[in-house]
Every structure is written in C-alpha cells, then in structure tokens.
Amino acid sequence: MTIREFLINKGFYEIIFKKLPTGHLLLSASVNGIDGSFILDTGTGYTFVRAELKEKFGLKVHKEMDCAAGAGGDHLRTAISGGNKLVIAEFHLNDHDIYLMNLDHVNLGFRERGISEIDGIIGGDILTPGEGIIDYKNHALFLKGK
What we know:
Shape: globular
Strand order of the largest sheet: 3-4-9-5-8-7
Distance between the termini: 23 Å
Radius of gyration: 15 Å
Strand content: over 45%
Helix content: 10-25%
Number of strands: 11
CATH class: Mainly Beta
CATH superfamily: Acid Proteases
Largest sheet: 6 strands, mixed, barrel
Number of helices: 3
C-alpha cells in the first residue's frame, strides 16, 4: 500500500498543487462558492484574500486590524471577514474567518517573473484542522475530511 492509498483510506482528501518557478505551491480553492487561485504558505497562520477582491468573494468585513507583521518585518493593514465557506477540492470549512490584505507585493513579484497573479494565500488555519500533510515529490496536499 502506498502512502497516498493509506492517507485516502484514513479519510484524507488529495489536493494536487503546482510548484511555481518561485518555489510557491499553487492550488485552487473556492471562497463562498467563487473559485480562486491561492498559494499555500505553511508559515502564515491565516488564510488571506486580496483586499480588493472582497466583493468578488462575498466577504463582509467585521473587524479592521491595524496591521499584520510578516517574518520579514512588513506591517500591512488587514481586516477580518467571518462566517465564510472555504472549499479545497473535497475539504470544506464552514463559518471560517478569512483575512483581507493588500497582496500587491506578492503579485508584483509574480508578474515580474511571468507568473499569473493569485487571489490569496492558504495558511496554517487550514492545515491544522485538516491535519495537513504535504507530499512535495508528488505535488499533493492531503487534508483530512470531517
């Protein structure tokens, strides 16, 4: 039995991602029924959507935050939208908080390298409840269903 077969037998969903030339892991997800393009970032604690896309994804802000600090020391304004539905393949989270933030710095770097812009970032707030396992060799993320 392969590790993939073992994980699927244990209730995990397999989500195929694409490794970008920058090393980022690109996957598809939907927020409130709208499909988007996201990078997986194991180092961030939250899931983010580009602030200017809040209407597209039906995000209603319920709290403004002064700033979020990244590992690089950047301070960016954020907002929180609660009660959202996030779906990655067969993995579903309901009533989920999603943060809104300007991601121009990420997309600028992607555009400079000829890579399409992303809609957001999938963070550790998905990996923890989904018991996330990343298979880098086979470009697969495994998340356990509820």
